[in-house]
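Now for a specimen:

…
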Amino acid sequence: MKKWVVVAWLGAMSLAGLGAPGWSQQNQPLSFGVIIWRSPTLTAQFWNPILRHVSERSGVPLQLKVAQTGPEHTAMVRRGEYHFLYSNHNFIKENEESGYRVFARSKEDAGTGEIVVLKDSPIRSLTALEGQEVAFPHTAAFYGYHLPMDALLRKGIQVKVHFAGNQEGAMGQLKAGRVVAAGVNAEVMRAFAQRENLAYRTLWSSDKYLSLALSALPSVPADTVKAVREAFLKMADDPEGAKVLEASARVLKQSAPMRFVAAKDSEFDNMRKFYRATLVKVELQ
């Protein structure tokens, strides 16, 4: 299976200087998987400085790894190919056996899925989408495909589906006029619209769900997970860490920098409940 690493940060730091308990000089960097929302360039620009800081503070070298597509990311989660993960694909029932353990999340990380149109679009209701062309990120997108498509199916509305590859790809198709609507992650849509000066309207919005969790594979030693967890949780209160988060927020034109808080698996039970009842077929590689 093909996959690629967006950017591998090993840095100039000597592994001998890394002081995480349970970590040795002989170990390779641990992979850090990130969900496919944006382009590889933006993903790297946002995450690499954060991972560099966490690596320095925790003593655990982390390597950003991004799959080519959403479904491929899902498959890699199912096979346990990431040591650490920032995603929600581990909550799909078919992926639960991989055993990823939640240890943190973004503090403001409760979001919604939306179906949006351009501001001047004549479409004013979901029923008006019958038979129309609608863009979605990919078949594994929770906010951008599973939630919106489930809503359409429950209303008996059939649309012509176009998969764009990632969240911003679907938004780009809407902006270019190739489709009349798009299924999106509300937060990513707001940031994209601000960055691209795009006016849009929301036709439908889902209930709120905690979005993405920081999780670790069960095989990662507990003291290594603890060191990484502590680095994430303390980052916003660390002067250097705060600067990194602010710089990453500017890359995406986010209204506020991320702040990570402790989390546990049960906080994501409503997402698991959705997957047990959804009308959308979750396609897996």
